[in-house]
Amino acid sequence: MAEVEEQPLPLSPQDSGRGECGEEPPDGGAAVGVAEAAPPSAGSPVTEEPAEDTKKKIDVLLKAVGDTPIMKTKKWSVERTRTIQGLVDFIKKFLKLVASEQLFIYVNQSFAPSPDQEVGTLYECFGSDGKLVLHYCKSQAWG
Amino acid sequence: MSLNLDTEDDFYLEENRFKQCCAEFIKHSQQIGDGWEWKSIKDFPDGYMSKTHFQMKNGNTPSIFKDSTKESDEQTFTHVEEALDDSQVAGICATSEVIRYEYHVLYSSSYEVPVLYFRACFLDGRPLTLDEIWEGVHECYRARLLEGPWDTITQQEHPLLGQPFFVLHPCRTNEFMAPVLANSQRENRNINYITSWLSIVGPVVGLNLPLSYAKLVSEQNTKTD
């Protein structure tokens, strides 16, 4: 139900609970809680599903702010190169927001990154416990 | 900044707090070389935050040339007074030109929020029209500008300098700031109003804040207000 069938899904949800790492080791060898991939024995990429390479995806937790609808699936695996704008578009579609509604994404609950900012960079700066927490808030446009 | 009430009313920014937030913001700007400064006007108690930056206009023919017969088809803009004339168009179509952008953050005592004033001009002093400014804005923000929760962009006289600037009208600022502020308050986090606000409105007019400003916020969370 969390997967949108009719279009390629830029994000993949995490179905199972995942162990959280306190710290990410510098070589990235330990698993960073990838839900669907093979057991975390590999530093080598698993090619059965190309998008599931642990190094290429980061875990994002989306939290609603204000009276913005809460997404049923809050935890997502997102490619590092996904931009904020890409994420905004995705959430807007997921929440079925109308065109006149605007969506903002914040890090640290307070700062809206530029639209072309990559989530991988944000994760490196603001991620903790193996995930990046992003708050999202919708805003009514001038109508 | 306010007591434990969640109504929109309590998230207005009072003037001293405005100055304080600007000071913190500028301090960080100095640390990372981002170019913001505080400007005060002689004999006036008021001041404002200002940044000037230069950017190369790309060598492509801007859309302004193709649309030279019509000034602007975006309905949300009002009071865009500059008309295109041939000399302007010819000048624009030259290859890369340097554009000087100026951003000022002033305090509006009537709305009790900060207000963003901006203008841009070529090095010979020729001002850019709004359309030309938007040439340099990330495409998604052009859509956002039309859809955004802010009012129109108008051209007004800068209250302290008396020169024409474009202004992002402040009447709905509180509306989009309130949820962010309320959320932070609930979680007992101190946020810098100016940082948050500018991170939201800035990109719409071509002003992007480096990520380190967001870290500034979290460093302050060890202090109580």
UniProtKB/TrEMBL annotation, chain B:
Keywords carried by this UniProt record: Autophagy, Cytoplasm, Protein transport, Transferase, Transport, Ubl conjugation pathway
Record keyword Acetylation present: no
A biological process term (GO) from this entry: autophagy of mitochondrion
InterPro entries: Atg3/Atg10
CC per GO annotation: cytosol
Keyword Cytoplasm set for record: yes
Superkingdom of origin organism: Eukaryota
Pfam short name (any one): Autophagy_act_C
Location relative to the cell: Cytoplasm
GO molecular function, one term: Atg12 conjugating enzyme activity
Main subcellular location: cytoplasm
Gene3D superfamilies: 3.30.1460.50
Role noted for this protein: E2-like enzyme involved in autophagy. Acts as an E2-like enzyme that catalyzes the conjugation of ATG12 to ATG5. ATG12 conjugation to ATG5 is required for autophagy. Likely serves as an ATG5-recognition molecule. Not involved in ATG12 conjugation to ATG3. Plays a role in adenovirus-mediated cell lysis.
Recorded family membership: Belongs to the ATG10 family.
The name this protein goes by in its record: Ubiquitin-like-conjugating enzyme ATG10
Organism expressing this protein natively: Mauremys mutica (yellowpond turtle)
